[in-house]
Amino acid sequence: MKKLRGFALCVMGVCAMGLSACGYNKHSEVDALNEAQAVGSPFTQKLASEYRIFVNREFNEMYDHPDAIHFARKGLAAAAGDAVLPEPVSDWNLMPKHIEELGTARGRLLAAYDIGARELAPEQSAIAQTRFDCWIEQQEENWQAGDIAGCKNDFLAAMDALEGMLSVPAPEPEFLPPVEPVVMDAPEPMKPEDAMYLVFFDFDSTEIGAGGNNVLDAVAEEFKGKNTNVIKVVGHTDAAGPKSYNNRLAMKRANAVRDALAVRGVDASIIRVEGRGEDELLVQTADGVREPANRRAQITFE
């Protein structure tokens, strides 16, 4: 049985009386998405458009009203300018082999996001995300082989194209006269207390992306070779949202980093977590402004 994603399902007997008995009325999220005028970045506008196509097929052709409404809500968020993320694999009832496959695929997409795919190739990024969401939704149902393969293949093709757009071609070799090597003194190693690592987060999220995981791998490796008494993790947010909420979100981000370091073998008892909310912005902005650089956790050795 599917997990409930944000709304109650009607009893079968009630649903048989008509769609309005289940709450699918003229003013549903599907109608709202169809009427929405998308704003925001080129990525969020294209994402809203792609979700609209996906949602209408689920609602009008597949008659999968619960999932249609779930994805309509994501489409509405995108239409409002929010860069919603692809579906978390843990939210869906999947077989182990599908969990691994879809987890790898989602990581591939998020890795592309981490190097600027949404900004550099917004349309292809939006297509890749909606095809991933289509694939995971169909894979949970696991009975329409053609639809599963269609969504999966469309995602893989979109990712191939997206990664091709992001790749930087190697420069043409030039034939230059040989030069004498310059021997330079090796720089002094950085003191542990001077090192600082940053893990960035998406808006209103505590999920650590592929880029953040690479940073934490480096922190864990650095920890092995140092005599460190304390690792300090400080969570931060941007200036969007109430201050009290941001204080809690900052602590959640710090705790997420602590837990991820513990998984990597760092002694959790020496990790000290703090949350500063929006009090120490890395990039100064007015209140209410969403700034990606401010959504971070800072890691230092003491």
The global form is globular
Assign a percent range to the helix content.
Answer: 40-55%
Number of beta-strand segments: 4
Structure class: alpha+beta
Number of helices: 10
Strand order of the largest sheet: 1-4-2-3
How much of the residues is beta strand, in percent?
5-15%
Span between termini:
49 Å
> What's the average pLDDT?
83
The biggest beta sheet is recorded as:
4 strands, mixed
The radius of gyration over CA amounts to 23 Å
Helix-strand topology string? HHHHHHHHEHEHEE
Low-confidence stretches: 1-27, 168-175
Structure commentary:
This protein has 302 residues and is an alpha+beta fold. The protein is built from ten helices and four strands, in the order ααααααααβαβαββ.
Topology diagram in text:
Layout: H1 12-15, H2 29-35, H3 42-60, H4 65-79, H5 96-114, H6 117-120, H7 122-141, H8 145-166, E1 196-200, H9 210-224, E2 231-236, H10 243-263, E3 271-277, E4 296-301
Parallel strand pairs: 2-3
Antiparallel strand pairs: 1-4, 2-4
Brief write-up:
With 302 residues, this protein is of the alpha+beta class. It is built from ten helices and four strands, in the order H-H-H-H-H-H-H-H-E-H-E-H-E-E.
